[in-house]
Amino acid sequence: MIVRDLGEFGLIQRLADRIARDERQRNARLVLGIGDDAAAWRADGDIELLTTDTMVQDVHFRAGVGTWRDLGWKAMAVNVSDIAAMGGAPRYAVVTLGLPARTPVSAIDELYEGMLEMADRYPVVIVGGDIVAAPVFFVTVAVTGAASQPEGRPVRLLTRSAAAVGDVVAVTGYVGSSAGGMRLLHGGVPARAASSPDSVAYLTRAHLRPEPRVAEGQALLQCGVRAAIDVSDGLVGDLRHICEMSRVAARMRTDLVPVHPALGQLLGDEALSLALSGGEDYELLFTAPSYVVERARRTLSCPVTVIGDIVEGAAGMVTLLDADGTVAAINRPGWDHFRP
Amino acid sequence: MIVRDLGEFGLIQRLADRIARDERQRNARLVLGIGDDAAAWRADGDIELLTTDTMVQDVHFRAGVGTWRDLGWKAMAVNVSDIAAMGGAPRYAVVTLGLPARTPVSAIDELYEGMLEMADRYPVVIVGGDIVAAPVFFVTVAVTGAASQPEGRPVRLLTRSAAAVGDVVAVTGYVGSSAGGMRLLHGGVPARAASSPDSVAYLTRAHLRPEPRVAEGQALLQCGVRAAIDVSDGLVGDLRHICEMSRVAARMRTDLVPVHPALGQLLGDEALSLALSGGEDYELLFTAPSYVVERARRTLSCPVTVIGDIVEGAAGMVTLLDADGTVAAINRPGWDHFRP
User: Fold this and answer.
1) Does residue A56 belong to the interface with chain B, where contact is any CB pair within 8 Å?
2) If one looks up domain B3-147 in CATH, what number appears?
3) What is the pLDDT along chain A (340 residues), one digit of tens a residue?
């Protein structure tokens, strides 16, 4: 059996199972190990968080699509987003660069400018890393975070495993914009894009410079939300992750999925499919009782849209419904880098 | 200018300088950023540590030299060693795998067995990571650690910047064994090796399964040592790192450098050169006043050998002396993966 047969999620599950069997890998302070957006453990009353994400050239990005500065921004942003999806505040980062010896130093300078531009917003402090020779460029960032806890109360975090039957499903902002931007950047620009520079700029920025929902994640936690994930694999795939971890099923009304006007305008026919399975939006997808979601909608300064609900059913099953309630599709797979 | 022109250390310095200029990258809780074996910051009285290290196929290891299990052990061990070199205890790890799609799943299983075998000794708990498609195999591990602090006292850590004129320089265990083992594994086995299987086993194990000096690092801290580094780039190169960061110079007596009998026996002619610049020994190289080193020698259960002293001089200059005190060499460069 090779890695492609098992796929990314199959391999992660296999390794998680192996670690779970190991007695010495258990730890009374550990709150969340493998399987959520970030790991979490208790440390003197607070919760500490740790996550890592990698971008490999020609797998996660192509040279010439976006700048090195964009790449630096995104490499940091996707990690910050994992901390946001736990309701935490990002703190410290280590950065590993795998570099062909012929990489221009100016490219690395620009990469760091983008990384710092993103990091400085929170601020995340870059405290170290590793630089290694490699035949292909890659960048791995690991970010720590913290989620302060009310004294003497149960742990308060956003996790993938806290969805409950009866919750409604909601999402921040718009989905599909990043995938739409990628489509434009890779050459699929429709003729009508020429007359809509603002729409092109919005979509390409969504792909190259995603904004992690850090303040929103913390606000969701304050509002009483406990189940969330960031939309990295795609809306349906990420809802499936929540449902798998929470041992529930979900129904999603495809007509309610929030699509930015720019996406509809430039890629109308594909807008819904990009919104459902495009990924890399880094919006927060969350579930909670409807009154909690209503509170969140009033508190957050970004759009919050209800798109479905959590129901009993096979763990991980996501049913897509049309506007009239008929079943449109079930359980479309998310993105797997190991499969064509 | 390309990365090869600047080299690994030049590039690290350039990026560290850039970050140091950034006001928002300053943080009152940060104790050590880029430039030591691990980053360190204050967290409720204790010090937290974070480090990361990467191994890339055909750069840091070759397929078929050692097993996947050895590789997993080493990928974890080199990170644990960084925490040891701060005097800390390793705690949590995230593991990133870059995998060609045709990688056998059994290889990853074996890699994890080796990683867990090493991690379980402390225990380090593997709490997450990332799995990505890549054209070349690589493994990046990030490990957190903690160094408990005496209340109300200055921070107590092993750092590269604490060496002082008048200190003696000492090292744990033996150096050069790992480089000797690599030489044997890559085919340079002398005829006399056939009659010395124990020596071959010792040297190859030193290369494939290095033992981080975790207990020793903590003991050195208890004994009053404050300046240390783990020997990863090579004895002379790592002493130079200490001297650069401490703005001092050092003299090293090459005849005092501790070489294991197996290295002398099998690679006699090269033993000293491997010991001085071989690297990957993961012994602790440290400096302290002689009475502190004497205390350490009595406390540690491994050999502790005095090999030189810290003197005034150009920051980073390391002078190698023969047994009779004549200058043998100055400042031989360490290992740089970007240069041939």
Assistant:
1) yes
2) 3.30.1330.10
3) 999 999 888 999 999 999 999 999 998 899 999 999 999 999 887 999 999 999 999 999 988 889 999 999 999 999 999 999 999 999 999 999 999 999 999 999 999 999 999 999 999 999 999 999 999 999 999 999 999 898 888 899 999 999 999 999 999 999 999 999 999 998 777 777 778 899 999 999 999 999 999 999 999 999 999 999 999 999 999 999 999 999 999 999 999 999 999 999 999 889 999 999 999 999 999 999 999 999 999 999 999 999 999 999 999 999 999 988 888 887 655 556 676 5
Query: Residue A328 carries which side chain, given as an amino acid letter?
Result: A
- Nearest CA distance, A325 vs chain B (angstrom): 37
φ/ψ of A226, rounded to 5, equals -130, -15
Whether B241 and B335 have beta carbons less than 8 Å apart is answered as: no
Q: B-chain residues within 8 Å CB-CB of A105?
A: 1-3, 5-6, 11, 14
Q: Where are the alpha helices (DSSP H) in A224-260?
A: 235-246
pTM: 0.94
Residue the block writes with tokens 């130079």: B240
Q: In this complex, do A128 and B33 lie within 8 Å of one another by their Cβ atoms?
A: yes
Determine the 3-state secondary structure of A77 from DSSP. Answer: helix
Task: Kindly state whether B340 is in contact with chain A, defined as any CB-CB distance less than 8 angstroms.
Answer: no
How many Cβ atoms from other residues are within 10 Å of residue B147's Cβ? 23
Could you name the CATH architecture of B168-330?
Alpha-Beta Complex (3.90)
Which part of chain B has CATH 3.90.650.10? 168-330
DSSP string over B131-176: EEE-SS-EEEEEEEEEE---TTS-----BTT---TT-EEEEES-SS
Residue B118 makes CB contacts below 8 A (sequence gap 6+) with B72, B73, B76, B77, B80, B124
Best B31, B50, B78, B241 residue to mutate vs chain A (most A CBs within 10 Å): B50
Instruction: Report phi then psi at B283, rounded to 5.
Output: -80, 165
Q: How far apart are CA A208 and CA A185, in angstroms?
A: 10
Minimum-distance CB partner of B39 among A11, A127, A132: A127
Contacts of B10 (CB under 8 A, 6+ apart): none
Encoded amino acid at A149, one letter: Q
Which residues is A133 bridged to in the sheet?
A99
Among B287, B329, B285, residue whose Cα is nearest residue B311: B287
In which residue ranges of chain B is CATH 3.30.1330.10 found?
A: 3-147
- Dihedral sign for Cα B149, B151, B155, B156, please: negative
Per-residue buried b or exposed e for A74-91, using 16+ beta carbons within 10 Å of the residue's own CB: bbbbbbbbbbbbbbbbbb
**Contact across the interface for A92 and B50, Cβ inside 8 Å:** yes
Best residue of B29, B132, B149, B230 to probe chain A, by most A CBs closer than 10 Å? B132
User: CB distance A96–B41 less than 8 Å?
Assistant: no
Q: Do A102 and B25 touch (CB under 8 A)?
A: no
Superfamily covering domain A37-147: PurM-like, N-terminal domain (3.30.1330.10)
